[in-house]
Write a structure and sequence with these properties.
- The protein has about 220 residues and is of the alpha+beta class.
- About 45% of the residues lie in helices and about 15% in strands.
- The chain is built from 9 helices and 6 strands.
- A 6-stranded mixed beta sheet has the order 2-3-1-4-5-6.
- Helix 2 packs antiparallel against helix 5 (about 130-145) and helix 6 (about 150-160) packs antiparallel against helix 7.
- The protein is elongated.
Length: about 220
């Protein structure tokens, strides 16, 4: 179970009504979820493999939107259920009601330490999202992961860390020249050089939780 735990995400939901998939012991259709726990009419807990995050959330929205509202918090396991997860879950539950139930919000903790300092990360705009905004971020991570090889991903990150200066401009130009047309167009369309480092770091963290796309090669 330790291997399963390390590769899983924990989801705590506080919503206006339970998703259709959790009512009357139902199951999610398009994503693999470990046996969920329904606490009451508004709260649920479940675990899923970290690469199932995007299909699970897409299914949740497709079958329950626009009526589903509330606050869903997603975080990694500590890997030590008996010594660490109770404290983490208590901290997450403590913050469950801080937003009004006017829409569906997602709070994604990429790292355990963020659970204890949520306000600073919220100020960067990289922790709490409207559900469609977070799905868009996952989609961008999947496209980025699919269009760039791992060594190219690392090169992009290293150049972006330099900041907007003459050295960065020089290396950015060299980097673009070595990429295929699809990857080059993607980076330019996204204007990724204008992103904050917090947003860039989030993109790279989300890549761990998305699958490759089978992209059609250009003729």
């Amino acid at each position: 179970m330790s291997s399963v735990s390390r590769n899983s995400l924990v989801v705590w939901g506080f919503v206006n009504e339970l998703p259709d998939q959790l009512r009357m012991g139902g199951r999610f259709r398009d994503s693999t979820v470990y046996d969920p726990y329904v606490h009451d009419d508004q709260r649920f807990l479940l675990m899923l493999h970290h690469r199932e995050l995007q299909p699970w959330l897409q299914e949740l929205v497709i079958y329950n939107s626009p009526g589903l509202k509330g606050f869903i918090q997603i975080f990694p396991t500590s890997g030590l259920w008996e010594t660490g997860m109770g404290d983490l879950l208590c901290r997450v539950i403590q913050d469950e009601a801080q937003f009004p139930m006017d829409l569906l919000r997602i709070r994604f903790f990429a790292e355990i330490r963020q659970i204890f300092l949520p306000d600073s990360h919220d100020q960067e705009g990289t922790l709490t999202f409207e559900v469609t905004e977070f799905l868009g971020a996952l989609e961008m991570a999947a496209v980025f992961r699919s269009l760039l090889h791992p060594n190219e991903q690392e090169q992009v990150y290293q150049v972006l860390k330099m900041g907007n200066n003459n050295e960065e401009k020089f290396y950015w130009g060299r980097l673009l020249a070595g990429l295929n047309a699809e990857a080059r167009d993607m980076l330019q369309a996204w204007r990724i050089r204008q992103w904050s480092m917090a947003r860039i770091n989030l993109l790279y963290k989300l890549m761990r939780h998305v699958e490759f796309y089978q992209l059609r090669e250009s003729p």
